[in-house]
Write a structure and sequence with these properties.
Elements (H helix, E strand, L loop, with lengths): L4 H31 L1 E7 L10 E8 L13 E5 L7 E9 L3 E5 L5 E6 L4 E5 L9 H4 L2 E2 L3 E10 L5 E2 L11
Antiparallel strand pairs: 1-2, 2-9, 3-4, 3-9, 4-7, 5-6, 7-8, 9-10
InterPro entries: LexA/Signal_pep-like_sf, Mito_IMP1_subunit, Pept_S26A_signal_pept_1, Peptidase_S26
Subcellular location: Mitochondrion inner membrane
Pfam family, one: Peptidase_S26
Length: 171
């Protein structure tokens, strides 16, 4: 029994419909991961105790690319200036115009530096195991890829990220 004319037309366009849907899904996913949000697995000890050495995954908002609305206390993601092709996560502790104290691993201050225009000062929460602005200097805001807004895995430790800074009493 021959197919009715309207079914023949639909049957012939099925591959085009599948291709069109696949392309739309691909482009939407690309735009979403480039400009809205992305998930990233963390590794390394530089952000202990905020992030574990292995096994944590974080949600990164791409709205904050190139340093847009980033402030002191934010945890940001950027391309490593030490290892090409590696994306790292550090905490912002100084913005342009701020003065920062260069500290060694023991936390002793050595000298003071003003963060230049268009840059920020980033450090890992675990100073003794972090390669950060203390080693490579002020970081250009333009290399920031996004801001870590939540720890999403493991599920038992899922939480939104706060700025994580605490007041230190001085005597």
């Amino acid at each position: 029994m021959p197919l009715p004319q309207f079914l023949k037309h639909r049957h012939a366009s099925a591959p085009l419909l599948i291709l069109s849907t696949t392309l739309k899904t691909f482009f939407f996913t690309h735009l979403f991961l480039t400009h809205i949000y992305t998930l990233k697995a963390t590794r390394g000890p530089s952000m202990l105790p905020t992030l574990e050495v292995f096994g944590d995954s974080v949600l990164i908002s791409r709205y904050f690319r190139r340093g847009r609305d980033v402030k002191v206390g934010d945890v940001v993601s950027f391309d490593s200036v030490v290892v090409a092709g590696e994306e790292v996560i550090k905490r912002v502790v100084g913005m342009q115009g701020d003065f920062v104290v260069l500290q060694d691993e023991a936390g002793r201050g050595e000298k003071m530096l003003q963060v230049p225009e268009g840059h920020c000062w980033v450090v890992g929460d675990n100073l003794s195991a972090s390669r950060d602005s203390r080693h490579f200097g002020p970081m250009p805001m333009a290399v920031i890829k996004g801001k870590v807004v939540a720890k999403v895995f493991p599920w038992s430790e899922r939480r939104w990220m706060a700025d994580g800074l605490r007041l230190v009493e001085t005597y």
